[in-house]
Input
Amino acid sequence: MDRLVLKFGGTSVANLERIAHVADIVAARKQKAKGLAVIVSAMSGKTNELVAWAREAAGDDLQGPEFDDEHDVIVASGEQVTSGLLALALRRRGLKARSWLGWQVGLRTDGAHSKARILGFERPEFQESVDAGEIAVVAGFQGVDGEGRVSTLGRGGSDTSAVAVAAALKADLCDIYTDVDGVYTTDPRIATKARKLDKIAYEEMLELASLGAKVLQTRSVEMAMNHRVPVRVLSSFEGAVAEPTSGTLVCDEDEIVEKQVVSGVAYSRDEAKVTLLGVEDHPGVAASIFGALADAGVNVDMIVQASSRKAGRQNMVFTTTERDAELTKKTLEKKKDTIGFDELVLERDVAKVSVIGVGMRSHAGVAKTMFEALSAKGINIQVISTSEIKISVLIDASYTELAVRTLHTAYGLDAD
Ligand code: ADP
Ligand code: ASP
Ligand code: MG
Output
């Protein structure tokens, strides 16, 4: 292989012992790769700790731009530590290696701190060093914006750093090592009957990720799909081998022989439901509600508008992330009179459960199976949304695991 990219997540580099094992894996893989770049996450739990420190230091006084740039400086430090530690562990094994921070590889992003988007790479030295045979250990999750300030790519962003490096190097393969041995039909930690997939189409992986399966960050899949980077997910908790054959390959749809109608079930607990009661019913109302939220940087997901018993009024229900819930409430209540509504009700104890499959495009009755299976367990559906290859329902959060397992069985996904 000419160029290979490997990525190790937080649990894979959780302590010095795990980092030593990662160094063994990297050493084994180097035997078969001329150029090798390794992307690392922070030790597991580290980023959460750093985020909490930043929030505590800022208190309620500093928000938005006054907080965001320094937040990124703080939280990016976790990856700086692991990149240096892995470079040392590799040198101890007699390998040529060095660490690279986001700004050193020239990973340019936009200025949207804490959720920055990658614009490109600007430092050819990095590529030259990889081609010269030195192992590049790159700090994931971080880049540098147009002002020269440190930026971070959103939670789980090291996956995206890895795919971006693989795309820039035109690597033959991008292997994402994590704490499970591949992509499963659903989260193996909540459904013991989840089945490992040998291959999954980019489109399906994109839906799975964006609907909550955190095994790959959504943007990493988007980028892999756009640049046609072959991505494989595999476990770092297995032995160090030069050519692993296990794992799940994320690839083009036509490479998959056996196509299922539904190939996976995902869930997300990071949801909040907002109901606006008695909203004035005239053109421009939706634009004023969602315009105000867009200006405040709130992401909105499912939206349902329904007529109300009151003449000239309607009710609007939508979902947002748990994190944006308070901001949503504040933003809309400030504009209550201009928008024109009676009351805002916020519910946090909701979860979204989704079924995904490219086979849905050509099969009828997929939604019926979902609704019947949930109703048989007494699970009430609050909101429904669909696209060509997925159906999502919003339910009471306490039923999340039951719903996931029920749907997994209903679509015949259970392992024997
Ligand atoms: P890392 O720290 O290596 O980036 P993450 O915790 O971000 O790892 O992602 C791996 C986790 O993703 C697994 O431990 C698993 O619980 C979760 N997960 C959710 N859905 C799936 C799925 N469909 N297949 C595999 N893992 C999944
Ligand atoms: N350390 C970062 C996080 O925990 C990035 C990553 O692990 O991918 O979100
Ligand atoms: Mg991750």
Summary: Residues 9-10, 41-42, 47, 78, 140-141, 155-159 surround aspartic acid (ligand 2) (CB under 6 Å). The two ends are 37 Å apart (CA to CA). The domain at 3-254 is CATH 3.40.1160.10 (Carbamate kinase). The CA atoms of residues 271 and 321 lie 4 Å apart.
